[in-house]
User: Fold these one by one.
Assistant:
Number 1:
Amino acid sequence: MTQVYNFSAGPAVLPRDVLLQAQQELLDWHGSGMSVMEMSHRGKEFMSIIHDAETDLRQLMGIPANYKVLFLQGGALSQFSMVPLNLLGDKTHIDVVNTGHWSKLAIKEARKFTEVNVVASSEDRQFSYVPDVASWKRSPDAAYLHYVSNETIGGVQFPFVPDSGETPLVCDMSSDILSRPVDVSRFGLIFAGAQKNIGPSGLTLVIVRDDLLGKLPAHMPTMFDYRVHADADSMYNTPPTYAIYIAGLVFKWLKQQGGVAGIHSRNEEKAGLLYHTIDNSHGFYHCPVDTANRSRMNVPFRLGSAELEASFLAEAEQRNLLQLKGHRSVGGMRASIYNAMPLEGVKALTSFMTDFARRHG
Ligand code: PMP
């Protein structure tokens, strides 16, 4: 099999060991004679799979007992509606920090249901930084404060967890969940699409403090109600069983990597190497993001001209360095280096980058 390094922003690379185990177990899970794909979600086999997945995730993230873990569908985008619908209660507005594409979309969607106060925005400089907290204009009595810990397209990552005081803090952690330690007790709700650091697409994770449940207006669809899913242990309807199984394998793999702290130091090493290569290229490569807010997961960079960028991508592909094209809305390059990207992949990329700069610089 060809060795490729896949720098896709998501769906993204999965740990090879996880895929090998899934392959081994594909036809016969633990002697059951069934594939996980064929199992009843209410059977004892699958019940043990989802139970283990939740237990391992709770351990990895240190999720306190008063938080529910929900395995849902609909992608992170459906959370842009579910969060305001479930958390607004009798409040009239929410606070949101606007640091890029996914913040903007969350704001647009929330405006269908509530007033949105944008506390700060980095749109003035093409979303290349996190606005200084001292400049944030929080509103009194907001239902919650929403932010995106890592803007997947812009490559801007919060280096801190904002202090929201008594106001519940909501975080779209889609592209950096499980990549670094976080204190879950600081949050009211965390959500993430699975297809970056968790597993295959089709699974959406929600971690929610239990006092925030039960506020969905009665006329809203039952499937949008966090409390319904929490009360049914994510089994109100058929959950995305195979994706949950793979996520469970990824959690076990993460534990073998030294947990979140262990993977975090590897992530720092990988990102450090890539940014070092960019910063030491004498301007051949350029990262548009302020140094303090550079993402450890998605590294955007530019070259001097569109022609050079096109030949960079073509040559990279020839060397099996795949999916390096930036998002269509911003152009340029983007290397996504999630938990499952091995250090060797980043080394292969950086040595190609150095070589390419030498030949074209
Ligand atoms: N938020 C962030 C930060 C994302 O990166 C993405 C997807 N790239 C989304 C939301 C949307 O997720 P989904 O496609 O799972 O709905």
Note: The first helix runs from residue 16 to 24.
Number 2:
Amino acid sequence: MHAVAITGTGVFTPEQSITNDELVAAFNAHVDRWNADHHAAIAAGEVAAMEPSSTEFIVKASGIERRYVMDRAGVLDPDRMFPKLTARPDEAPSIMAEMAVDAARKALARAGREPGAVEAVFCAASNHERAYPAIAVEIQALLGTSGFAFDMNVACSSATFGIQTAADMIRAGSIRSALVVSPEICSAHLEWRDRDCHFIFGDVATAVLLERDEGLDAPRFKVRSTRLATQFSNNIRNNDGFLRRTHDQMQDRRDMQFMQNGRKVFKEVLPLVSTHIAGHMAEEGVTAEDLRRIWLHQANKTMNDFIGRKVLGRDPAPGEQPNILQDYANTSSAGSIIAFSQHSDDLAPGDLGLICSFGAGYSVGSVIVERA
Ligand code: COA
């Protein structure tokens, strides 16, 4: 068995962003228009009036202050409330591939590696722009990596599941290096007209370069161990699968976009994640005192504070469990990797850290890393 290390990470951050105030202003303008258009039905008690959103609620319920998006104008147009992302001709690179290539080039530059040395690309994300050919194969061609590539989807846990997939292949010796890229265009599967979730998501792409840890001396993170788990639940679901085009009114079907029972998710996922991490640490003989940092999935600040307390047995000190969701919102599988990429350089050789993602499935993935 070969040792594995994460030698580089990269983040593509879209140029456009939306503050909570801007989002709420657009949402509330949409509410006013919708209520005016439906006033007779509302007055007759046939439909309920839409309720306005508020910045205070968003910050209190989630900790999110703004989000990056691929298209601001479409989302903030009260008559549209959906990004304008036009389908590209087959000859042009797909949007996800472009985002992933940017993040991958940053990861390669950080590791000082050429694309040709990479033997596999896994595009691990919650939604894919098309069914096939795999986005990962397109990324392979755009980057000029060798070997093979394929797409994976384990919702918000896609990146950690991708890391274990890559690490296991490197351990077994079938490949020497791999890129796990997670381009997440969450804005395209969010229902921006639903007050309960319109503030949740943002767009981003991350890349993680993993290599066989032999003869390496540059700063890196050894992958000590990985652990994955899944348990079926309908509480986070998106039905926009391959059958969608057989439905006449696909545009009107709320279940064709992200849906969640947020409160149930909150209640059910917390014990699942805490138990998963505790089991993984016990198996590896890692105690709370050994952990210098925890990079968690970025969906909700209260949730992360709770998990941090559970894992460490005390309130995390500032910086011990970095959050990036105030700036990026929930970016699905990319969240824990953004936190890892932006808040890990200062660790000293021998320091241990834990990356953990969780989300739809339910799914949870954890990676214990050691600074070298
Ligand atoms: N603005 C103002 N008020 C709002 C609102 C908004 N945008 N959205 C909901 N509210 C209201 C609700 O109507 C409710 O009012 P009520 O108490 O009179 O019924 C109240 O605020 C509380 O709503 P609730 O949905 O229970 O809030 P919450 O504190 O549970 O927070 C989530 C909602 C979604 C942020 C939270 O449950 C969560 O983060 N869950 C986990 C989500 C997760 O991890 N998902 C994974 C996705 S990948």
Note: The longest helix spans residues 262-284.
